[in-house]
Amino acid sequence: MGKEASRKLEWRINVSDGVSERLEPETGAILRAWTWFKRLMLGGFILKICKFLEKAWNLAVDEPKKVIHGLKVGLAISLVSLFYYMRPLYDGVGGNAMWAVMTVVVVFESSVGATLGKCINRAIGTFLAGSLGVGVHWIAFHSGKNLEPIVLGISLFLLASAATFSRFMPTIKARFDYGIMIFILTFSLVSVSGYRVDRLLELAQQRLSTIAIGASICIIISMLFCPMWAGDELHLLICQNLEKLAHSLDECVVEYFRHNKTSTAKDEACSKKMKGYRCALNSKATEELKANFARWEPAHGRFSFRHPWKQYLKIGASIRNCAYCIETLHGCVDSETQAPPHLKRHLNNICMRLSSSSSNVLQELAFALKTMKQSSKINLSVGEMNFAVQELKHALISLPNHNISIKNPSPSTVEASGNCNTEPITSIRASSSFMEILPLATLASLLIENAAKIEVIVNGVNELAVLAEFKPTTDNKKSKSNQSPKKLTSENQDPETVKIPQKV
Amino acid sequence: MGKEASRKLEWRINVSDGVSERLEPETGAILRAWTWFKRLMLGGFILKICKFLEKAWNLAVDEPKKVIHGLKVGLAISLVSLFYYMRPLYDGVGGNAMWAVMTVVVVFESSVGATLGKCINRAIGTFLAGSLGVGVHWIAFHSGKNLEPIVLGISLFLLASAATFSRFMPTIKARFDYGIMIFILTFSLVSVSGYRVDRLLELAQQRLSTIAIGASICIIISMLFCPMWAGDELHLLICQNLEKLAHSLDECVVEYFRHNKTSTAKDEACSKKMKGYRCALNSKATEELKANFARWEPAHGRFSFRHPWKQYLKIGASIRNCAYCIETLHGCVDSETQAPPHLKRHLNNICMRLSSSSSNVLQELAFALKTMKQSSKINLSVGEMNFAVQELKHALISLPNHNISIKNPSPSTVEASGNCNTEPITSIRASSSFMEILPLATLASLLIENAAKIEVIVNGVNELAVLAEFKPTTDNKKSKSNQSPKKLTSENQDPETVKIPQKV
């Protein structure tokens, strides 16, 4: 369009005045620049939109739940707008149907708990503020024409200030933040509109009924169509964090000992798994939010109404504690100062055994949580982990003695010592300094520290099992397989063979 | 009341029928139980309220800002309600003044950035949805009487679904979440009410003007009366976290080495300081929120409009990384397995020197941030810290050599070695096992690790200093004191002096 118009313009100039200098080259350049600029802008804009749509598409594919939530909100709003479209309904609730639409838009959240919480908050807030507003109005009305606005103004100021301040109280903020906001809103509207509209009670009744309509549509839709329970999400989050910790721990230690052999063989998937613990590091806010929502939810699936959601926060905190330790462990893997390979080889197997038994405990816990059954193997797994801790400690104790006693080992013994690490380390060169051992010793002591932190998680999950009355495992096979390895240990005297098949 | 009624009832029974058995003892007991129950309930209720008020009072004393915010909201709502109370104003904006009240209640947040962001979101969301709503309405109107509700319904469903889904996109969620909600709300209201009310444009104009009134009152009050800038808060939070880390680090190491001497001398204030780093552990969500709000804020105080707030998030992340390390360090202090006192004594001073030079760097950084000036001493402090790292490493290297060479030191040397720890450790008993050294070695290696992490923070602050154009310190005294220690180090032939001065 712009191109054509400017061509026309040029053409006109040339026709109207034959001798006028030809403007073409200059305007042509400007024109071209402008077109180029437009295309660039448009191209940039289209590119941005394309990128945005691509991101949205990826999100939708990754988490179809979010698309479903969008559709549910659309459905709820369409339903509530029926109150306007249909004449009989419209006559019933009057022009206040707006409040129903507003309720749906504002109250509908992605999880059932959040929606329920907001609905209850909105209802209670509206009701309390409405009654209080009518009461204050009555007092103001009876205190004379002159005092009326003053009484109303002061009460509004005081109540709004106090209520706003109360939103900062942690206990209020966690559960009733929205209710307080609605309280302030309703009280202001009532005390303000009451000055004009004399049909206060009628108004209040209408508002409450429209809110009830909006809220019930929200609750019904959010609970009937693909309900997303905040409790389920919290439960899953904790399970996933446990599993991620387990994988990270395993990968970290494997990576540490692989490091010097093939330092470039660090593939993408492995590195992603290794960093899984980072999800646990920053999940505190999410956990608290979900636990708060979950408390509003009725009994659903395997969860009763008074499911001990707070215990999940406790478990979450101990998981984070463990994740901090793995973060430091991760630092050891990435560190520039590494123990020399021959030293690493000595503690390789025993460290791997401790890390795998630790991650085994974590996975057992995740499985127990997932199935909500008391794990029959957890005690055994913990025992194994503690045994590995003792072994590692022994290996460490025997380390310096030999360091002292053997001053000049032949180089061949260094090579030959290989992988048998339960035997005391006899082949360390006397020249290997403390600084060379230090990184390895730090890793070992972090692994030992980590095992202690895992036991705290075990206690947390056990408490949850008691509080939430997890069922005991009744599987006979499992209890059998539970016994046989115990026997094995005593016969073989090798802890490695005891390794119980993981149930995850 | 209940007491009187039940007495009356009893009296009546006795009078109406002379031979009826006397009910007094039983009802008396019930009555007493009821009264007791009521008192207990009332007492419990009053106790709860008292506790709540006490908590509120403490919060108000601790953070008077929050009280001020409450008063500001009260003031804003009172001001906006004037539009109702005063007839001329009322006639001006019509019955839609409700929207102004609603805007104030919903939009007024504690920080200027959050309030501004919400106002802008509300304005843009309302405007876009209003225009789109009118457009869709026009199309629906021209598509015939029968199709009209269908076109409106489908467009409402699709737009509401898509907009709700877009709220899950991280980029949208961070900045435009509220705007999208207002978009959905306005679009629903327009497309729904338009079916009834034919004065759509007038309605839209009224709504926009009332929203503008409410929003401008909010903005004026939040910016003029004790403004609370999200940017200021973020800046302060980062500074405080740096200081808390510094104190925690110091206290942790002091506590570690005091432990065995007077294990009960752990006072409250000390333990509180030691746990200060925990604030940094969980501040990610707060930092991100504040950074998002800060981006809406205009230039204020020392911050320009385009202040690099994102860089604060980067610094925050590296502070957290450091805090993870201190968390593990804290674990060493609380650990049951401790190195024996005589071993601790050997590394006491050098560890303390490293920790105090590390915390010195942190405090320098906090000071540089606070004053927004390039610290002239930071390079020196970092150099000192790295020197202490080298010293600690040397001390560790010399440890096992002496462990080997000196097999039977006289007990007197153990006692005599005391506090001079730059000299090689000559007095360790040959019998002290590796397990005894391990906890101490872990502590040392964590301290070394921590120093590396602190350098990452230093780099982050340096980047900020460049981005935000921190002024160089012009203080003469400081530059003098800057030179003298440098001289000292160069005389000592310390590798650290070669360290190129970083430009903070």
From TrEMBL, chains A, B:
Family: Belongs to the aromatic acid exporter (TC 2.A.85) family.
Organism: Citrus sinensis
Pfam families tied to this protein: ALMT (PF11744)
Topology within the bilayer: Multi-pass membrane protein
Top-level lineage group: Eukaryota
Annotated region described as Disordered, given as residue ranges: 471-504
Main location: membrane
UniProt entry keywords in alphabetical sequence: Ion channel, Ion transport, Membrane, Transmembrane, Transmembrane helix, Transport
Transmembrane stretches, start-end: 67-85, 97-116, 123-141, 178-197, 209-230
Protein name per UniProt: Aluminum-activated malate transporter
Any GO CC annotation of this UniProt entry: plant-type vacuole membrane
GO annotation, biological process: malate transport; monoatomic ion transmembrane transport
Subcellular location: Membrane
InterPro entries in UniProt: ALMT (IPR020966)
Record has Membrane as a keyword: yes
